[in-house]
Amino acid sequence: MQYDRQALTTALGAIPSIVASYVANVPEGDLDARRAPDAWTVREHVYHIAGVQKMLTGRIGTVATEPNPVIVPYFPQNEPAIGDLYPSVESALADYARNRAEQIALLASIPDGAFEKRAEHPEYREYSLPVILNHMVFHEYWHMYRIEELWLTREEYFGKD
Questions:
Q1: Angle formed by the axes of helices 5-23 and 89-109, to 10°?
Q2: How far is Cα 64 from Cα 56, in angstroms, rounded to an integer?
Q3: Tell me: the pLDDT tens digits for 22-38?
Q4: How many CB atoms lie within 10 A of CB 75?
Q5: What CATH architecture is 5-154?
Q6: CB neighbourhood size of 133 (10 A)
Q7: Do the beta carbons of residue 107 and residue 60 sit within 8 Å?
Q8: Close Cβ partners of 1 (under 8 Å, ≥ 6 residues apart)
Q9: Closest by CA position to 7, among listed 82, 15, 37, 145
Q10: Residue 15 φ then ψ, to 5°
Q11: What is the pLDDT of residue 161?
């Protein structure tokens, strides 16, 4: 798989600050607005992004160190209720930033050869460190887009294609 390790690492390192800066603009009263029955709130998006970081750190470590890494799928329904993960948005964002700093340090310590290693993941036909890093960037940007949509989209346009 082609990838740019430095670009991915740089992007990953920047995202927590981007999320925190953006979410700081959302008024407290809008953090829990549920715009549609199945839509998450801004708070739930932030808690989810922060809450999955330890699992992702574990995956990075497993792929980097295990000779034949096998990844267990993530099922959100098996996790604690998303609203119970953190006492506040600020604590979620602080945890997110701490975990991301640990991930960046871990990535810096992994030799290039480990980035070529494949892991087994029952949901994906290919799984490796580059796939994990790309997934992290794409996943977090997707949630960032949803946060923006929840906060800024006018009610009459929300949910329309």
A1: 170
A2: 12
A3: 999 999 999 999 888 88
A4: 7
A5: Up-down Bundle (1.20)
A6: 23
A7: yes
A8: 126, 128, 130, 131
A9: 15
A10: -60, -45
A11: 57
List residues bridging with 118 in a β-sheet. 128
pLDDT of res. 38: 84
Give the tokens for residue 87. Answer: 């006492």
User: How many residues in total does the chain contain?
Assistant: 161
pLDDT for residue 157: 73
Q: Write down the pLDDT at residue 159.
A: 67
Angle at 138 between CA 136 and CA 141, to 5 degrees: 105
Give the chain's residues under pLDDT 50.
none
124-to-127, 132, 150 alpha-carbon distances in Å: 6, 11, 30
Dihedral of the CA atoms 140, 143, 148, 150 (nearest 10)?
A: -170
pLDDT score at 95: 98
For the stretch 95-119, pLDDT in tens is 999 999 999 999 999 999 999 999 9
Amino acid occupying residue 148: E
Decide: 26 and 42 in contact? Cβ < 8 Å.
yes
Taking the alpha carbons at both ends of the chain, their separation in whole angstroms is 33
CA dihedral 143, 2, 10, 151 (to 10 degrees): -10
Token pair, residue 30, equals 């809008």
